[in-house]
């Protein structure tokens, strides 16, 4: 059922966003196809929403259809799992832990859905989503009647926080994916998951609404010789050598700076948190400030990891 004038702030981890003209939550593939056909009849644009954990909605809202992907099916055949794109990463990780399947421990505490993680090749603690993907099933938003598109891992073009689905600017909607894991020791999996969750609680400002890391870390290989000498002591693996964006923002003296109701977190400067009913414009102003100051201080161009929806 199509709903109208739904506040997007209710569907964002940021608690930011104006109304969507249309809103439809899909729980199976047939509903997805019907919703896309309806949108075509309305001649309206479509934006696919997962968990709302990596997106900044406009204060003015969205003059089109927000299609919330909520397919949460899961089935197992050996070490292979077919998972609905609407299942949360935490739900999947709970399933894997109980089953004694290893390969996703790095994602402990990672917000969002499986579909969103695939689209952005989400990663942390040196791991990335693309490493566990076997194949992905999607649908062309403009031609749903053409049927499913099936891509094996290589065709997904996974890159650093990117994939073919992100590069194509939301042209397709991910429906489900087949993921592959390895048999592991259940107690060891639980231990690693617990350690990673505790690390996030200690290091990240989870007490305030946010959409996680705003900027991608900077690949060390892309830095010039002067920059490499300056930042060699703070290299981390993500999953290749990078300079943390948080370090650059901190060294630029920007931690704790606020604009309206948004603030660059002193706890983790790559998080811009909503501390007092922030607007999208507050967050965007801080993003522009960070990019400008880091460029001026270190000659480094930071690239956003989050998605804007104007």
What is the gist of this entry?
This protein is of the alpha+beta class and about 300 residues long. About 30% of the residues lie in helices and about 25% in strands.
Molecular structure report:
This protein has 8 helices and 21 strands. The protein is globular and about 55 Å long. The longest helix has 19 residues, at about 280-300. The two termini are about 25 Å apart. About 45% of the residues are buried. Strand 11 (about 135-140) and strand 12 (about 150) form a beta hairpin. With about 300 residues, it is α+β, with helices and mostly antiparallel strands.
Mean pLDDT: 94
Q: What overall geometry do the principal axes of the alpha carbons give?
A: globular
Number of domains: 3
Read across the widest sheet, the strand sequence of neighbours is 6-7-13-11-12
CATH topology of the largest domain: Uridine Diphospho-n-acetylenolpyruvylglucosamine Reductase, domain 3
Oligomer kind: single chain
* Low-pLDDT residue spans: none
Q: If classified by CATH, what would the architecture of the largest domain be?
A: 2-Layer Sandwich
Distance between the termini: 24 Å
Please work out how many helical segments DSSP would assign: 8
Structural class call reads alpha+beta
- The rounded Rg comes to 20 Å
Instruction: Describe the main β-sheet briefly.
Output: 5 strands, antiparallel
